[in-house]
Known about the structure:
The protein has 6 helices and 7 strands, in the order αααββββααββαβ.
Amino acid sequence: xxxxxxxxxxxxxxxxxxxxxxxxxxxxxxxxxxxxxxxxxxxxxxxxxxxxxxxxxxxxxxxxxxxxxxxxxxxxxxxxxxxxxxxxxxxxxxxxxxxxxxxxxxxxxxxxxxxxxxxxxxxxxxxxxxxxxxxxxxxxxxxxxxxxxxxxxxxxxxxxxxxxxxxxxxxxxxxxxxxxxxxxxxxxxxxxxxxxxxxxxxxxxxxxxxxxxxxxxxxxxxxxxxxxxxxxxxxxxxxxxxxxxxxxxxxxxxxxxxx
Length: 259
């Protein structure tokens, strides 16, 4: 708003009153500020640029708040005994722990405070609200969450199998029960996850074969007495890299609504 252009419309007989002109300018500035705020409102609530409280309000309008209830494995009394004990939290004598098998799983609240993570959920939630339950939209959704390598690797028989295509971060693992709650999948269709290699074993385009898995180091060459043959630098001499078969597709139900 051009304030002075509007002040110039004051009748000539009143222009010699500085107090009147001051009042006119004061109220025009307030109207101009309101106009600027209204013009900026769509940008502040744009899903691509909104942050903080604005993004929180968008989430409420989309029916997907920041706070969600998820399952939580309860700590147990004992000692960490290696990889077989992963996903378990062990505590000692003076801490609040249960005997294993008494209380396995509880519930906890998780808040999606990171705006960029929350923005991904809201973008996918739009597809769900519009009932866009086609395969192309679902593939776009999983790429939004986990990157271009993610995709739906199998579907049919009342379920879809989603592969992130890479190891999940710790934060993503915490949210694993929340992802299916917004994915655009029709009512009655089960959502399963495959967390192994993207090329799962199978036949046809996109499936992996017997030797399509990641290569591993070869075996060391041995003498007749089963001693390793070493190079001048005391490094073992290995055979060529060995090809391994593709992972079997393992359909995991993350149980998004219950424990």
